[in-house]
């Protein structure tokens, strides 16, 4: 009884071990199937061998349209004739050999032996194609219509000579217009041009005057411009001119002289101070015109200032104005008369004096 019980326990243990080993094998198989399925469906490790031939039929499709072109007798003939056409014209024929160049590049290894026998075939075809060659030449000539830009280029070259030919007769046209413009200008201002010519050719000019103040010189220039007398020249010089000064008095100190000058400037802005013989002299003003100085002297006398008129010479800047060019006194008579109406008394001198 005891021996039978042990054998039954051993059998149960063996069965349990077999069952567990079977379960492990099943799990391993399931894992392998899962890994294989993942690699097959979700990765490209197993599939690339099947996908690799897919681009090959796409490459085979490219030479397929080339074969019917090669099968026709006219296609190789045009290919043969196209080579001289490329040498002569060069535009349309170069596009045709581009197709057979793509065919050998697509066929890789098999096209290389086919490309080597091609030159003898072309050489053998040349004598056979010689009769249709003249018929083929007009065909590229017709096809050469897109080469019209080449014909346009020579057409453009003769265009410039036509332009120059037209430009030659146009030249007298502006001269006529210029003559017409000159004629109208002459009709509008004959007198002004004649006077200008006389002025330019004349050896005499008018001395308008010499002016100490810049303002007076500018006002006279404006009158000359209004009258149309030109050219006007300005020359500046430092000259000793007679002056009429209104003397107030001399003072020992500078302070007392300044005080007297301040009182004087309340009634005239022309007062000034000079140092003479170790003293300070105060003046109410300096005037070129004696009459004007006398008027100012009387006015200030009424204000309580006893002034003495003293004549002296002082260096001053003088502006000398000359205007016009004339042949003589007769040609300058009109301008002299118009200037006298403006209160100016000019005199005629030679240019440069």
CATH class of the domain at 194-350: Alpha Beta
Question: What characteristic shape results from the CA principal axes?
Answer: elongated
Rg (CA only):
61 Å
Count of DSSP strands: 6
Question: Strand fraction band?
Answer: 15-25%
- By CATH, the architecture of the domain at 194-350 is named 2-Layer Sandwich
Mean pLDDT: 68
Task: Predict the CATH topology of the domain at 194-350.
Answer: Alpha-Beta Plaits
Give an account of the 3D structure.
The protein is of the alpha+beta class and about 350 residues long. Among the domains are: about 60-140, no CATH class; about 195-350, Sporulation related repeat (Alpha-Beta Plaits, 2-Layer Sandwich), CATH 3.30.70.1070. The protein contains 18 helices and 6 strands. It has a 6-stranded antiparallel beta sheet with strand order 3-4-2-5-1-6. A hairpin with a 2-residue loop joins strand 3 and strand 4. Helix 5 (about 75-90) crosses helix 8. The model is unreliable at about 1-5, about 70-170, about 170-180 and about 185-200 (pLDDT under 50).
């Amino acid at each position: 009884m005891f021996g039978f019980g042990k054998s039954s326990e051993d059998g149960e243990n063996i069965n349990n071990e077999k069952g567990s080993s079977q379960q492990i094998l099943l799990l391993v198989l399931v894992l392998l199937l899962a890994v294989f399925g993942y690699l097959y469906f979700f990765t490209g490790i197993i599939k690339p061998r099947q996908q690799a031939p897919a681009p090959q039929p796409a490459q085979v499709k490219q030479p397929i349209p080339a074969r019917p072109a090669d099968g026709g007798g006219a296609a190789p003939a045009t290919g043969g004739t196209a080579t001289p056409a490329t040498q002569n014209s060069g535009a349309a024929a170069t596009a045709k050999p581009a197709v057979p160049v793509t065919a050998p590049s697509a066929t890789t290894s098999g096209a290389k032996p086919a490309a080597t026998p091609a030159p003898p075939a072309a050489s053998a075809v040349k004598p056979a194609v010689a009769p249709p060659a003249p018929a083929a030449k007009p065909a590229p000539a017709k096809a050469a219509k897109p080469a019209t830009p080449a014909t346009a280029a020579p057409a453009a070259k003769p265009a410039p000579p036509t332009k120059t030919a037209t430009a030659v007769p146009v030249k007298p046209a502006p001269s006529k217009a210029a003559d017409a413009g000159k004629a109208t200008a002459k009709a509008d201002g004959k007198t002004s041009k004649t006077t200008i010519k006389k002025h330019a050719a004349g050896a005499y000019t008018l001395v308008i005057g010499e002016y100490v103040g810049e303002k007076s010189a500018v006002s006279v220039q404006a009158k000359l411009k209004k009258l149309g007398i030109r050219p006007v020249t300005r020359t500046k010089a430092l000259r000793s001119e007679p002056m009429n000064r209104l003397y107030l008095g001399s003072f020992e100190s500078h302070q007392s002289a300044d005080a007297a000058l301040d009182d004087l400037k309340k009634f005239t802005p022309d007062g000034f101070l000079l140092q003479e013989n170790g003293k300070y002299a105060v003046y109410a003003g300096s005037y070129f015109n004696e009459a004007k100085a006398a008027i100012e002297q009387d006015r200030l006398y009424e204000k309580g200032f006893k002034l003495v008129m003293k004549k002296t010479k002082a260096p001053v800047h003088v502006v000398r104005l000359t205007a016009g060019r004339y042949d003589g006194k007769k040609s300058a008579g009109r301008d002299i008369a118009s200037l006298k109406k403006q209160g100016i008394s000019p005199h005629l001198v030679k240019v440069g004096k």
